[in-house]
Amino acid sequence: MASFCDKHNIRLHSIVLSTTRFLAILFCPFGLSMLYVLVLSGSLAGIILIFGFRALLRNRAVRRFVRSIKQRLRSAEERGALIVEERTISRPRKSPRTSAIELQQVRSLIRQAEKAMAQEKIEDAERFCIQALTVHPHAYDVQAMLAKLYLTTGRENKAEAMYRELLQYRDEVSFHSNLGLAYYRQAKYIEACQAYQEALNRDPQTPERSAALGRACIAAQRCEEAAPLLEKATQRLARSTELLRLLADCYLQLGATDRAEETYKRINKIEPYDEEVKAKLLSLAKV
């Protein structure tokens, strides 16, 4: 009986020792570090699996897209469509020597055109300008010269086209003003008002801009807009009886007889022997 108890105690003692050793190994620093390594390895493996799965899906989508493109190309070839390969056309660059020669040619042609215009040889001047534009298509000064030549020789439709093209590259007051004149001479009064307004916006101090817009507004039956414009112009151009007559007629159309009478009196002071103005004043005095 005593020997049995001794054996039992020995077994319990061995079990306790083994358990103690296991716990010591489990909770020792080395055991904790192993645990961290296992957790980190598992996380990395999970991330790698996720990215691998996404790459696999992406590759499948790319292969499906390529397969659909191939099917479309095959069906297009079956229908007899021709597939032309794209080719990049390189624009040859001009050497500085070539550019200098062309510039010299343009200048020479401009001088000949100016000489022909001075001699009133309109056809020769036009020919020289066109030759200069053939050498240098983007010579805007030559385009402006040719547009003005068209405008001064009664070819307003060509002048209109030239000025509209010029305004795409250069926003100059004179181009807007001359375009307005080209419109006005073609009885395109609404377009003339728009062009003259652009010129006035860029040069509000010049009285001729207000006068030109006022004339176009009268022609377009916009007397309410024309009156203040002509009034502003006549303040600077006080001795222009032409503008004063336009202003007086504008006031008459608006029914402002008092303002019209004042304007005719201003004309009478400048031209006291004008019988027509005297008659207008007499008729207005009776109203």
Task: Describe this protein's structure.
This protein is an all-alpha fold and 287 residues long. The protein has a domain at 2-78. It has helices at 2-27, 29-78, 96-118, 122-135, 140-152, 156-166, 173-185, 189-202, 207-219, 223-236, 241-254, 257-270, 275-285. It starts with a helix and ends with a helix. The model has no long low-confidence stretch (mean pLDDT 80).
Give the key terms:
287 residues, 13 helices, 80% helix
Helix and strand topology:
Elements: H1 2-27, H2 29-78, H3 96-118, H4 122-135, H5 140-152, H6 156-166, H7 173-185, H8 189-202, H9 207-219, H10 223-236, H11 241-254, H12 257-270, H13 275-285
Which band does the percent of strand residues land in? under 5%
Structural class: mainly alpha
Largest pleated sheet: none
**Low-confidence blocks of residues:** none
The helicity comes to: over 70%
Total strand segments: 0
* Rg over C-alpha atoms, rounded to the nearest angstrom: 46 Å
Q: Which series of helices and strands comes N to C?
A: HHHHHHHHHHHHH
Average pLDDT figure: 80
